[in-house]
User: Fold this.
Amino acid sequence: MQWTLVIPLKPLARAKSRLSDTAADGVRPALALAFAQDTVAAALACPQVKDVAVVTDDELAGRELAALGARIVPDEPAGGLNAALAHGAGVVRSSRPGTPVAALNADLPALRPAELARVLAAAAEFPRAFLADAAAIGTTLLAAAPDRELHPAFGTDSRARHRASGAVELRLDAVDSVRQDVDTGEDLRAALALGVGPHTAAVSAGLLIPGS
Assistant:
C-alpha cells in the first residue's frame, strides 16, 4: 500500500515559539522551515509514500517545499491544525477517492525513510492507527485506510484523544525518528542526537545548545 501524507505547517513567523530558550525570534522561522524541509524530503524518499501534500499559507514554505516535490494545499479553513488536516485529506481524496492518507507532523527533522516505512506498514493493518510522540503524550502520525476518514484530534493530549476516537495505537520499537518531533530545546537536542537532515543541520549549527 502506498500512502499520501498530509503535513500541516503554520505560517513560519508564528512557528516554534517554545524554542525561544534556544533560538532567537529571527532564527525560529528558519528552523521551522528546515524541520519541514527535512521531514518532507525523508517522507518522499520512503517507498511506502506515493506523495506528500503540505497544507500551508506560508508563501516561502510553499515555494521551498514544492521544490522538493510536495503538493501545496492552501489552508482554506484557516481554522487550526485539525481543520487543516481534514481539509488536506479531503482535497487529496477529491481527486483520488479511496487513497489511504496519513497525517504527519512537520517537525520531524531526524525522520528516516525506513522507519517511516515500518510505521506505515503497521498502520495498514488497521482502519485508523496512530503513533505516539517521544514524550508519550502527543501524536506524530495518524493514518486512515482508504475507506475511513482521518478524524484528526491533534493538540493537547492527542495520544489519549486519538485512542478515545477508536484509532489503534501502534506500539513499535526502533522508530525513534518518527516519534521525535521538536517543540523545545530539549527536543532539538534529542533530534540532533538521532541525526537530523541537512537543512536542520545547517540552521542549527549556529545555535549554542547547552548539553548538545
